[in-house]
Design a protein that fits this description.
The protein is an alpha/beta fold. It is built from 14 helices and eleven strands. The strands form two sheets. Strands 2-1-3-10-4-11 form a six-stranded mixed sheet, sandwiched between helices. A five-stranded mixed sheet has the order 7-6-8-5-9. Helix 8 links the parallel strand 6 and strand 7. Helix 2 crosses helix 12. The longest helix has about 30 residues.
């Protein structure tokens, strides 16, 4: 290599380093000066739903940190898919969203023509919060423990039915996973919402359901149903004294959690994504928000984008296998 070639190469490297430094400075400056307008947080579920509550717990302190209003816009429909698609299509650098796990893990398996691609169209910000589900039974069933439920099922083939909030929903797929791993025989009965599921199990029209802790514990406290187990891998602080399905049914790997995550469009610059993740996680890690979420049966997490991606990959495999094995189809 000649001296001229060495000089030319050194000059090129110096220019590249200089440009890289300029781009880095510009990116940091962009993040520091952001936002320049109202920040919109899209939630694909109705006001008062769990993802809506989590979003609103974050938006108020976030607006103070960012120095701009941060507003929630509810876009319910299609099991949360409409909200995720709205985020994916945003290109103003001032829109992100909160969603449940379904649109990111089960929808890509359930729907042939999904309007968004999780990997290609979205940036991940943070796995915000997780929650167990609660396995409950009707008082009319006269069982007090999970082993008693399994024994009843074996002795009374075809006698059990379980309710969910719709085909392909988390409560439906958890029931399918539970049935497959325990050998229990249950008929699936879909409803439009947890209010109807609750009425049906209290009234004895169905015998089993997988519910959110908040609704289940209120009904159990009133003596209207029995709580048998939680679906999380570990005992839940929000449901004290109740065993896990894994423990009670001797299924070591059983785990079926709900979670809520923050997402952004792929078009959002890296520096803004990083700033949003940092600020959201600070809020989620604050004692005040953790206490409020715990009271609702949720555990604040606040993860890195990579950790959220790992969770999506694992859950897509878990629920994809359940969907295929049970031949679940969404009309």
């Amino acid at each position: 290599m000649t001296q001229k070639t060495h000089l030319r190469r050194a000059l090129c490297l110096a220019i590249a380093a200089s440009l890289g430094g300029m781009f880095s400075l510009n990116a940091h400056a962009q993040a520091a000066n952001w936002p320049t307008q109202v920040v919109k947080v899209v939630v694909g579920f109705p006001a008062g739903s769990s993802p809506d509550i989590v979003a609103r717990l974050v938006t108020e302190p976030l607006s103070k940190v960012l120095g701009q209003p941060v507003i929630v816009e509810n876009k319910p429909g299609a099991g949360g898919n409409i909200g995720v698609d709205t985020v994916a299509r945003a290109d103003d650098n001032h829109t992100f969203g909160f969603t449940t796990n379904g649109p990111l893990t089960t929808s890509p398996v359930l729907y042939r023509k999904l309007p968004y691609d999780v990997e290609k169209d979205l940036r991940l910000l943070s796995l915000a919060a997780t929650s167990t589900q609660v396995l409950v039974v009707s008082n009319g069933l006269s069982v007090k423990t999970l082993p008693e439920l399994l024994a009843y099922s074996k002795a009374n083939k075809g006698a059990l039915s379980y309710g969910s909030v719709g085909v392909g929903s988390g409560s439906h797929l958890t029931g399918e996973l539970f049935a497959a791993q325990t050998g229990i025989d249950m008929l699936h009965v879909p409803y439009q919402g947890f209010g109807q599921v609750t009425s049906a199990i209290v009234g004895g029209q169905i015998q089993v359901a997988f519910m959110a802790p908040s609704g289940a514990l209120a009904q159990a406290k009133a003596g209207k149903l029995q709580v048998l187990a939680v679906t999380s891998a570990k005992a839940s602080a929000s449901v004290p004294g109740v065993p896990t399905v894994a423990e009670a049914a001797n299924i070591p790997n059983f785990k079926a959690e709900l979670w809520i995550g923050a997402i952004a469009p792929k078009s959002m610059p890296d520096a803004i994504q990083t700033r949003l993740t940092t600020e959201i996680n600070k809020i989620l890690h604050s004692p005040d928000v953790q206490t409020k979420l715990a009271a609702l049966g949720w555990e604040a997490v606040g993860s890195t984008p990579a950790e959220m991606r790992d969770r999506i990959v694992a859950d897509t495999k878990l629920w994809g296998d359940v969907i295929k094995r049970a031949n679940v189809k969404v009309e």
